[in-house]
Amino acid sequence: MHLHAALTWSYLNMLTKRRYDLLMESFGSLAEALAALDGTLLKKLGCRSDTIVKVLNRLEGFEVEKYQAELARRSICFLSIEDDAYPALLQAINDPPVFLYHKGSISILSKQCIALVGTRNMSSYGKRVVEKMVRGLTAADVVTVSGLAFGIDAEVARETLRAGGKTVGVVGHGLGMMYPKSNTALSLDIIEAGGLLLSEFPLDCPPDKFTFPARNRIIAGLCPATVVIEAAADSGSLITADLATDYNRDVYAVPGQIFDEQYAGCHQIIARGSATLLSDPLQLLTDRGIVPADMRQSPRTVVTDSPEEASVYHALSRMPASVDDVLVAAGLQAASVNAALTLLEMKGAAQNVGEGKWVRV
């Protein structure tokens, strides 16, 4: 790879794999193609008039040495599809990105990677699903991959870090920024923990309606399996699931209640047979051959210190219950129930999942 030529083509932000192949057939290298770059060549590559103007304007003001220095200053590395370090699974899809920018440990892509995606409008149930799935996967040394957006994606990254695992955030913009800005600290934590940030876009590329679907194909392409945690019928995470299907990768979806529109998309792809229903990470791990099929989780033993605490524990289940529901089921007064819930939470045997509701852990 001629680095300066590759960086220049990347900065121009218009080189798809199809266009790259055309250039290689005609010129043999990106350096030779760059020397011939003009409006006529761009038109032959299928660029529209407004794109041609934009590309030529960017080219005119570009200083490759300064750009390279800025990448180094930010500790951002650069790859082209010609490099040996380019992820093999991603290279196997029919439309891989020609260039990748990355920050952090790209070597983790050689491990088993699983994509976990979902809605930006995460529910308390969706948050619990993320916790369960991520803890099971990271315990098996699986690397989680997400789009680092609001909601499910960001929670996947956070929960992976809490569980001591490694995670990959694939972003729909250049690594010279972070969107949403509220994820800036999270992105730094990912790198600090040995994870990875990845983008195909030049440093100054902002997010828009085109960059996110492009990012989704990278998420699907990096992983042998994609899990849809929570998705409404119009959720963008279904694009990732469809792409994974197109790439002949495994797709799983977590079910919700039939009345919950937040899970209509999950139910839709399960019903049409394009996704396997997933209720436990052990199922996914077994399918991937990461754990033996006969592996079972050890039953949890909880020691209660009073009859009241035992009654409250047995009144709880995996389904969220309000304190009033627990009062009725346990047959106790409010003060006793609240005290028992606090003690059970301290033991890790009960969890407040929001909206004043509790579950057994």
List the defining traits of the structure above.
17 helices, single chain, three-stranded antiparallel β-sheet, alpha/beta, 361 residues, nine-stranded mixed β-sheet, elongated
In short:
This protein is of the alpha/beta class and 361 residues long.
**Strand fraction band?**
5-15%
* Major sheet: arrangement of strands: 1-2-6-5-4-3-7-8-9
Please report the number of helical segments.
17
What form results from the Cα inertia axes?
elongated
Task: Provide the residue-averaged pLDDT.
Answer: 93
Rg estimate, integer Å: 24 Å
Gap from first CA to last CA: 53 Å
Please give a structural write-up:
With 361 residues, the protein is α/β, with parallel strands linked by helices. It is 45% helix and 14% strand. The protein has 17 helices and 12 strands. Strand 8 (250-253), helix 13 (264-271) and strand 9 form a beta-alpha-beta unit. It is elongated and about 80 Å long. The mean pLDDT is 93.
